[in-house]
Amino acid sequence: MKDMSKLVLLTGFLGAGKTTFLNHVLQEFSQEKIGLIVNEFSGTGVDGALIRHDIPGASMIELNNGSIFCACIKDSFVDSLIDLAGRNLDYVFVEASGLADPSSISSILDQIATLSCAVYDYCGAICLVDALYFPKYLKLLLALRRQVEYSRAVILNKVDLVTGEQLTQVEQSIREINPSAALYRTTYANVSLREILSGGPQEEAAPQESSNTESSRPVTITLSTQEAVTPQALRQFLDEIAPSTYRVKGFCRTTEGTKNVSMVGTVCQIEDWGDALGQTQLVIISNVGVRIFSVTLEAAKRCFQSPVDLR
């Protein structure tokens, strides 16, 4: 009988550093046979383009337009895990969407074992926490608490953006939710997954019904435009919509080449991206509900010269 594939779940709020950490993991495990499931709330996949594609033998499945723990695409998640279980892989890494509530993962794995011969060696969940924004959203979003509660380890990322006192307060909040989780302070999510997994299995909280439902999904839109905007116009646009968003990410066609845009709250990174782009596509996750349509449209009218498409 062949060895079971090891399964590792990566969770963490929007922009906490999951994709950055996953790229570190792919480099660290480059000699292994790897399967990836990358999940995004939006219908437009961005993270898949940011993940390393130079690892031989890696298989990737993208599941977009919902949470893998929500009924909307849970069946696709189950099918994907069954598919990857049959490929004789060493590891399967699942990057959950930023607002995923993983409290039903054990029930899902039990369901898979019942439906098929697909059985995984579940190594647990690794939760990435944004040291700057975690305190702001913890009391507002149940999913963030559940992500910490159901993790074997917490990677406290972006510690360079907070003071020592703020860091201590965040760690205290994490300990109150999950006293047994190993805790790692990082910048750019730079920590070894092998080191994390070497700590041995952790007792997991009892499974619950996930809070991810159709009604709890944040409003998410995609902005598209053919215009090559100036970097100054792009920055102004992002500054204007920032207070109304949890997260903005994607690729922008500018007069100075393609830019990779990543914004969490008011913290924004705009970096050069080598691939030429036919049009701008920015995924915008709202914290003001459907009002994000009018906020985005008005900002685009002020900052861009050409009409934009929102959907």
TrEMBL record:
User: What range(s) does the CobW/HypB/UreG nucleotide-binding domain occupy?
Assistant: 8-183
What's any one GO cellular component for it? cytoplasm
Organism of origin is Pseudoflavonifractor capillosus ATCC 29799
Q: What is this protein called?
A: CobW/P47K family protein
Per its UniProt record, what CDD domains does this chain match?
A: CobW-like
Pfam families recorded: cobW (PF02492), CobW_C (PF07683)
Among InterPro entries, the record links this protein to: CobW-like_C, CobW/HypB/UreG_nucleotide-bd, P-loop_NTPase, Zinc-reg_GTPase_activator
Question: Domain named CobW C-terminal: which ranges?
Answer: 220-286
